[in-house]
């Protein structure tokens, strides 16, 4: 038992020392974060003592995990402008599906170190588990029971971090206390009462096409060499509404923008749920566009040319009210430009769905072509930014093509096109306070109104509903 307490002492001291390197760094960490780190370290040491029967191997493994959390938080802050949060750990399984989404963020030297240490830890785990002492396992059982119980009481009674303030809280308290408290606050967030039903209508726009375009941003806003986006410029000239879309994420977090546009709940309303609103979106299905518009649009189609298991879209989108899913398997023969299905192929699929629709149809599409990582050699570009702007031009062509198709179609329609977030390209496009992307909303047949308004994704949701209801009123008056 004395060895257990000795290991715990060294682990607690080491965890405190390691956590001081968390970015952003405060001059002095708030001491109220210490009990969270100590109890977290105790729980780790105890759990691995139970599994292995070796206190010192449990110490080494626990130290590795604490170090990995801090390094991971710092890498994320460097790439995306915000530290690690509890929801990042929940979706860690995505790493196994598409490791290339994440490996590019890890420096080669660190990757090499992990490649050496991880097999050693696994081999050591197998060896010491076979030879571990029963007394160490029993000490672990006692330690885990006490640490989990005390941590539960501490979280239940804490008054720290009452509102989301991720960067400031990490700077003040450190990575581990912030992860733990934010997870607790997230579990306490109440579900919202569903919104009232939308009114019935005899006539609605026959087509509503909403395109969430991967990493679509105005290159003039990214400090890149100016690139022509004629499709976006033309759309802005003829849009009934356009402007800046103030997304919260940079370089990632597609689901935050997607949730905002689909469900219309602001990040303030979501509270601690806003870091990954898809984790609780099943409780918000009454807010979702396809659910609220089901009585007006018999056909409600979700289109995404990639693996729908990401963010659990395969389960979530039907729950939100879509009654047809067009996914990766429906693009088996489609053109790829770079690693992913092209925006040209996505645009052709949207045109096909529009031409086949015999009833009022709502289509929500999420593009994939311009997904990172971007690096030299992709599309034979000299650097990542060069590859990005080539893909960006293809996204712009898709917007122009969809606009021309709806112009010629003759049916009443609404086209909404927006970027989900800016790209993160280390050394070329870095996180900064300005994170907005462009959006446009075009009505067909066109009218003379052209308004400019900056919106959040949730506000864009309500603007879409207002435009459909406006069309209803216009059709009823006619």
UniProtKB/TrEMBL annotation:
InterPro entries (alphabetical): Alkaline_phosphatase_core_sf, OpgB/LTA_synthase_biosynth, Sulfatase_N
Keywords attached to this entry: Cell membrane, Membrane, Transmembrane, Transmembrane helix
Primary localisation category: membrane
Membrane topology, from the record: Multi-pass membrane protein
A GO cellular component entry from the record: plasma membrane
Record-linked CDD domains: LTA_synthase (cd16015)
Compartment(s) where it occurs, according to its Swiss-Prot or TrEMBL record: Cell membrane
Coiled-coil ranges (or none): none
Protein name per UniProt: Uncharacterized protein
């Amino acid at each position: 038992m004395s060895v257990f307490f000795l290991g715990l002492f060294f682990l607690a001291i080491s965890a405190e020392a390691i956590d001081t390197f968390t970015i952003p760094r405060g001059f002095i960490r708030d001491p109220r974060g210490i009990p969270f780190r100590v109890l977290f370290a105790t729980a780790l040491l105890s759990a691995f003592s139970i599994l292995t029967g070796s206190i010192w191997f449990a110490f080494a493994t626990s130290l590795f995990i604490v170090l990995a959390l801090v390094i991971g938080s710092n890498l994320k802050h460097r790439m995306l402008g915000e530290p690690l949060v509890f929801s990042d750990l929940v979706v860690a399984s995505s790493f196994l599906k598409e490791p290339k989404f994440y490996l590019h963020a890890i420096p080669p030297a660190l990757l090499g170190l992990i490649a050496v240490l991880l097999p050693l830890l696994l081999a050591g785990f197998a060896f010491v588990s076979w030879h571990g002492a029963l007394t160490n396992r029993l000490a672990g059982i006692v330690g885990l029971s006490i640490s989990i119980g005390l941590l539960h009481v501490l979280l239940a009674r804490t008054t720290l971090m009452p509102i989301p303030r991720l960067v400031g809280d990490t700077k003040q308290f450190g990575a581990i206390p912030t992860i733990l408290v934010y997870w607790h606050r997230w579990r306490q967030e109440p579900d919202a009462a569903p919104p009232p039903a939308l009114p019935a209508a005899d006539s609605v726009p026959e087509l509503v096409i909403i395109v969430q375009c991967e990493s679509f941003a105005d290159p003039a806003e990214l400090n890149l060499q100016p690139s022509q986006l004629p499709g976006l410029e033309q759309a802005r000239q003829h849009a009934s509404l356009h402007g800046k879309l103030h997304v919260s994420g940079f370089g990632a977090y597609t689901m935050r923008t997607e949730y905002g546009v689909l469900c219309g709940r602001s990040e303030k309303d979501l509270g601690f749920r806003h870091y990954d609103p898809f984790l609780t979106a099943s409780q918000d299905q009454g807010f979702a566009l396809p659910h609220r518009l089901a009585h007006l649009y018999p056909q409600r189609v979700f289109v995404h040319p990639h693996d729908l298991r990401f963010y659990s879209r395969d389960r979530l989108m039907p729950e939100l009210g879509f009654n047809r899913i067009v996914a990766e398997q429906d693009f088996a023969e489609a053109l790829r430009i770079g690693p992913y299905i092209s925006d040209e192929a996505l645009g052709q699929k949207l045109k096909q769905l529009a031409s086949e629709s015999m009833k009022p149809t709502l289509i929500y599409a999420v593009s994939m072509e311009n997904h990172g990582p971007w690096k030299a050699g992709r599309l034979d570009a000299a650097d990542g930014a060069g590859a990005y702007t080539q893909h960006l031009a293809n996204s712009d062509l898709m917007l122009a093509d969809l606009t021309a198709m709806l112009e010629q179609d003759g049916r009443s329609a609404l086209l909404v096109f927006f970027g989900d977030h800016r790209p993160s390209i280390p050394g070329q496009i870095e996180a900064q306070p300005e994170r907005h992307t462009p959006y446009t909303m075009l009505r067909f047949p066109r009218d003379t109104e052209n308004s400019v308004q900056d919106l959040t994704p949730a506000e864009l949701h309500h603007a879409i509903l207002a435009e459909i209801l406006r069309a209803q009123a216009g059709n009823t008056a006619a």
